[in-house]
Batch of 2 targets.
Target 1
Amino acid sequence: MITFYFITDPLIECDHEKVYYPSQDSFLLIEYFKKKINDNYFDGIELSEIENVLDLGTGTGIIAIFLQLIKSQNQNFNPRIFASDILEDAITCAKENEMLNNFNNEIIFLQSDLFKSFPDKLKSSFNIIIFNPPYLPSSEYIKNRKNKQLIDYSWDGGLKGFEILIQFLKEAKEFLNLGKEHYIYCLSSSRTIIEDLSKKIMKLGYNNEIIEKKHYFFEDIFLHRLKCLKS
Ligand SMILES: C[S@@+](CC[C@H](N)C(=O)[O-])C[C@H]1O[C@@H](n2cnc3c(N)ncnc32)[C@H](O)[C@@H]1O
């Protein structure tokens, strides 16, 4: 069995100060996938079943490019890889990084607030959706200020820290391929009330497993794997 544990991380450069530079949370996802993708399976899902993968909130593009690197080294893994972000600068930066890693227009980029600008033809199409969302509660500073600055999109998850994630999960149902095996991977922080988040996820009809937990400086980061039980 071929695994991808020792695959090198993508080269990432970022001159755009409003774009989130990869951090421990980005690498928590990448390290998980390194352990869980092999020449036949993506975390238990047969590779041949996987047609479309989405890295939502791609930032510098690191996760989409990582998946593209695996695709280039594994002929059984042949999905279309999509990457989207609300910020134009993130899309520009991710496209530059795609080229830096010697891929030429392989990844399909979309600028969109969650799924709002996704074309209808992508409905019911994704087997895997990955979202490292903004997951911290809004600071007093942002609450008192009407306008969000562009860099705030990297971390400001709403008043409780998970409003963006919940909105994402509401919209994601329409875009998952529910007829096949599918997973959503997303992150949350102990700086939000995780029990409240879990209840909301359950109410939306998702099975929610916490599959990794890491402590960084002042918080724990949780990696969730979700499956949609009802549309
Ligand atoms: C924590 S950063 C993660 C970036 C990258 N995926 C990584 O792991 O390094 C969150 C990303 O989500 C994007 N984002 C925030 N709100 C969004 C929304 N409503 N729709 C799409 N992307 C959003 C931000 O611009 C930012 O690039």
Note: Helices lie at 24-36, 62-73, 88-100, 140-144, 163-172, 194-203.
Target 2
Amino acid sequence: MRISLPDLPNEVPTLSTERLTLRAITESDAPNLAPIVQLPEVVAALGHEQPRSEGQVLEWIRSLPQCAALGLRYAFAVVISATLTVVGLIELNPVNVVSREADLSLWLARDARQHHFGAEAARAVIDWATLTLCLDVNGVTTPDNAAAIALMRALDMSDQGERVVHSQRYGNVPARVFIARRRS
Ligand SMILES: CC(C)(COP(=O)(O)OP(=O)(O)OC[C@H]1O[C@@H](n2cnc3c(N)ncnc32)[C@H](O)[C@@H]1OP(=O)(O)O)[C@@H](O)C(=O)NCCC(=O)NCCS
């Protein structure tokens, strides 16, 4: 039997949840997103040497349409629908078009945490990826990131335990890995 998998989209869709809108990141989001990616815990999670400046965030935003066009990365702004406040970003990156899998990352502003926005945003992106795109979604975090581990448990992602993964900054490091499998 031959199974045909759907093509990966060439742009970021808009996903709506009860309280959130997840949409393509635009250049005007740079002033809101820069303070989030500059938080020490986010810098550590990204494996960067130092926080990105707002200019570097802008450069990164400008690279996103091409990444989506190639089906390699889909990055969404996490926006509270009622107030249009940008509270974070969530992405599937990298998307491996051959093995049909992607890593999920999510960063929220500190004052937006622990309101179940993370679970709401991640559930929408995981549903889109596993149901519509037929991707397996990996959640990879450091073994001491209690919030990320609790989030992935709350999402019923399958716990693969600790394993060594490659990080640009640290080389091979221990990580806690969760997976949501494609559902079609
Ligand atoms: C990880 C992160 C996205 C979680 O988002 P969030 O909106 O605060 O999480 P939620 O409110 O949706 O909580 C989901 C579950 O995790 C639990 N949780 C959230 N933060 C927690 C913490 N610091 N410690 C323990 N449990 C926590 C919640 O209680 C909830 O569990 P429940 O459904 O059983 O009540 C957020 O803490 C964050 O942005 N952290 C910094 C960046 C980061 O580490 N990102 C992950 C990199 S992959």
Note: Strands lie at 15-16, 20-24, 74-80, 85-96, 101-108, 136-141, 158-167, 171-180.
